[in-house]
């Protein structure tokens, strides 16, 4: 059966590695939770909220995103938000999701860390029991706050260590370089947590270097500005450091003027270990499969790129090698099941070399 390339990319098995749970809060659920908790929102209706989603840059988005998160109070609220995302992820054929959450956004409002993490965790458990969904949780530190605040948050997380696979760094990038968090990331590394950081979204390539060299992160979230630094590109490609790129986010936050000018194809051509993700799907107009469809509609990408991106997503995941291999086999079966003109030429770069 023939299918279009955007449709193939939309439907193929994939992992999602850059997804903020608070960014999955759809306006309908935001209003339902506001009513349930007796919280007043700055907008009168779901339509008014959607109209407010016209952003100039990262900060203009973050202001609204933190306001939206104020409706989350109880464990059930965090459960409902996470469950809704996991159902959407399943619809996009996401076999494995590594999800960010921002505990400081909630603890600063008096919500207990346990309320947040147990609500999210219960939804993860239920999704695993219901359809075998594989997922993991990454705790992000807010970079506009101090490193001391991050240390205090790490302390709060310790009783819930089994629920948290790693730590990340998000929020306002400009003026808050990764090295501000050198000590807390070193401590997280000692604790055996996996490390990632947003870098090179709006910030310069120097922030990607310091995320790698100072924080010693294993993946870079976004990283699209790396192409401005040829030595950095060579390093990222040689080390196969994954970059979790989010095209619709980049357009909405005006990192690129439109999809046609996104540098995804150039990143792939530079042999970078790119993955595609949704970032904050409720705010940016689409879930992961919509990101794939939009990129494949507007950029010069072919089936081998789709195959490569699906393989990359599992290679870059914080999963045991045998589980990655099982998921990659599902990708191969999916592609083999579609009559695709150049399917014999599909290649997939692996950490060990090139496989066909
Ligand atoms: N928090 C949620 N989405 C984010 C993004 N795209 N960049 C930085 N911090 C974020
Ligand atoms: Zn992000």
Account of the 3D structure:
By secondary structure, the protein is an alpha/beta fold. It is 48% helix and 14% strand. The chain has one domain: TIM Barrel. Strands 1-2-3-4-5-6-7-8 form an 8-stranded parallel sheet. A two-stranded antiparallel sheet has the order 9-10. β5, α10 and β6 form a beta-alpha-beta unit. It binds adenine (ADE) and zinc ion.
Low-confidence stretches: none
Largest sheet: 8 strands, parallel
The CATH topology: TIM Barrel
Count up the helices.
17
Tally the beta strands: 10
What would you say the CATH architecture is? Alpha-Beta Barrel
Question: Helix-strand pattern, N to C?
Answer: HEHHHHEHHEHEHEHEHEHHEHHHHEE
Strand content: 5-15%
Distance between the termini: 22 Å
CATH superfamily: Metal-dependent hydrolases
Shape: globular
**Strand-pairing-aware structural class:** alpha/beta
Q: Name the average pLDDT.
A: 95
Give the proportion of residues in helices: 40-55%
Q: What number of structural domains do the residues give?
A: 1
Give a list of the ligands. adenine, zinc ion
CATH class: Alpha Beta
Secondary-structure map with pairings?
Elements: H1 5-11, E1 14-16, H2 27-37, H3 46-52, H4 58-68, H5 75-91, E2 94-101, H6 103-107, H7 113-131, E3 134-142, H8 147-157, E4 166-170, H9 182-190, E5 194-199, H10 205-213, E6 219-222, H11 230-238, E7 242-245, H12 247-252, H13 264-269, E8 273-276, H14 281-284, H15 288-298, H16 303-315, H17 321-336, E9 348-350, E10 353-355
Parallel strand pairs: 1-2, 2-3, 3-4, 4-5, 5-6, 6-7, 7-8
Antiparallel strand pairs: 9-10
């Amino acid at each position: 059966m023939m299918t279009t390339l955007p449709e193939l990319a939309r439907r193929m098995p994939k992992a999602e590695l850059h997804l903020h749970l608070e960014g999955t809060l759809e306006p309908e659920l935001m209003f339902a939770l506001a009513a349930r908790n007796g919280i007043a929102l700055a907008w009168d209706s779901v339509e008014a909220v959607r109209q407010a989603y016209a952003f100039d840059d990262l900060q203009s988005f973050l202001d609204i995103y933190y306001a939206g998160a104020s409706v989350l109070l109880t464990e059930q609220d965090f459960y409902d938000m996470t469950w809704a995302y996991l159902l959407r992820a399943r619809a996009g054929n996401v076999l494995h999701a590594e999800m960010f959450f921002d505990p400081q956004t909630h603890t600063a409002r008096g919500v207990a860390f346990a309320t947040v993490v147990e609500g999210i965790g219960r939804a993860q458990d239920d999704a695993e029991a219901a359809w075998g969904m594989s997922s993991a949780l990454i705790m992000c530190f807010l970079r506009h706050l101090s490193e001391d605040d991050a240390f205090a948050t790490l302390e709060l997380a310790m009783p819930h260590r089994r629920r948290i696979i790693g730590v990340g760094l998000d929020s306002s990038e400009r003026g808050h370089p990764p090295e501000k968090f050198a000590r807390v990331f070193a401590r997280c590394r000692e604790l055996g947590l996996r490390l990632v950081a947003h870098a090179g979204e709006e910030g310069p390539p120097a922030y990607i270097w310091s995320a790698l060299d100072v924080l010693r992160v294993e993946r870079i979230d976004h990283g699209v500005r790396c192409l401005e630094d040829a030595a950095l590109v060579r390093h990222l490609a040689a080390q196969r450091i994954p970059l979790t790129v989010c095209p619709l986010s980049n357009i909405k936050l005006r990192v690129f003027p439109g999809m046609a000018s996104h540098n995804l194809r150039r990143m792939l051509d530079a042999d970078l270990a790119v993955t595609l993700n949704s970032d904050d799907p409720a705010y940016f107009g689409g879930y992961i499969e919509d990101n794939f469809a939009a990129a494949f509609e507007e950029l010069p990408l072919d089936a081998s790129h789709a195959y490569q991106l699906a393989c990359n997503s599992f290679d870059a995941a914080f999963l045991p090698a045998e589980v990655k291999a099982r998921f990659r086999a599902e990708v191969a079966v999916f592609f083999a099941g579609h009559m695709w003109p150049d399917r014999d030429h599909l290649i997939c770069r692996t950490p060990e070399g090139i496989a066909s």
